[in-house]
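Quick note —
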Amino acid sequence: MRIGLVGKPNVGKSTAFSALTEMPVDIANYPFTTIEPNVGVTWIPLPDPCACSDLRERRELSGRLDPSGPDDDRSGSICSPNTGKCSGFKRLVPVTLVDVAGLVPGAHEGRGRGNQFLSDLSRCDALIQVVDVSGSTDLEGNPVGSGGSEPIEEHRFLLSELDSWIFGIIGNGWDRVSRRAQAEGNRAIQDHLMDRLTGIGAKDIHISQGISSVQREHPNSHDISSWGDDELRSIASAIRRSMFPISIAANKADNQAHQCTELESEVETSGGRVILTSAEAELALRRASSSGMISYQPGDSDFSLTEMGEENLSEEQREALGSISQSISSWSGGGLVGLVSDVVFRQLSRVVCYPVQDETHWVDGDGKSLPDAILVPTGTTSKGLAYHVHSDLGDGFVRAIDARTGRVIGADHELSDGDVVSIQAKT
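Predicted structure written out below.
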């Protein structure tokens, strides 16, 4: 799972990246602070309680485990995550983030970081565009004062650059391919598109959806060999929508000069979402939490001072943190973490499955309880989950067992959110 953080220079992408990953990156108030892409991991909570909640209940009912007490530092959780953590049955799972250099108009023609920027987005499952809703920077990322630019234009220019990038890729050699299509049929076009776009992560479904979209928009376009620039630009846009679903982090909302109504309407029409945030504010809370001064979970709108914070924070620092919390609490959506979660679970339709070796005790070969919580696309089968775990498990797949019911399930059984599955395979 890879999500790209994109946008024009100087909108707060690197600050958002640092707030989400706690990785130190270069942050400055001028364009192109980021040159090479930053890659890191953020942790998002599962929308439902971890399966260890059910496991605890089973063990308590069987007399194999005492109820959780007030001294339990994990508030009842009994799983042993290989990655992330779980407390109070709130399981955190990893999502990879890619923070790329700022995009300027004409990038598809080589301006700024040019096609390198666009190539950095390859293999991303979705994009989060960080937009300056204060309107304080122009499309080049230069400061222009609050309200000097329009957030909707910032979003539209990104779409235009992505569409032009894909158009340039598929248009190369099109005349030759269209002549082939006259003799070989539409399959020649599909093969060409797949060949040209595989390198940026395109799949057959993206190509098929793109062709279907063009044929709906252009009623006389069923003869693909006759396509011109209008049809190619239409299919480039359709493939972009399919490959790179986009949501918006409406950044600098604490200094908001524009309403986001038009931006929200346009983005939500394409299945995305706009979340108000302040990356600087969220980063400040993350740093205060990491230093032990406050108790704070990313995505929350509130925090509490720790004993260390009570002793060491000045009144001015407390007021600053309180002001930050007040701003964040006035916005819905859970900030940056909430936006990433929305992209993963709603926009990309991911569900979580727990592969185990022992279906009776819900443990792996080392006796660790529910060590892995794996995000998979809705509709993933038992055999598909096996391949997610390891290619050898998929190649040798024999059957799977639903650990909750003890029922044997076949290779084509579609898994549901929260399933605990034991996979049996030939070695």
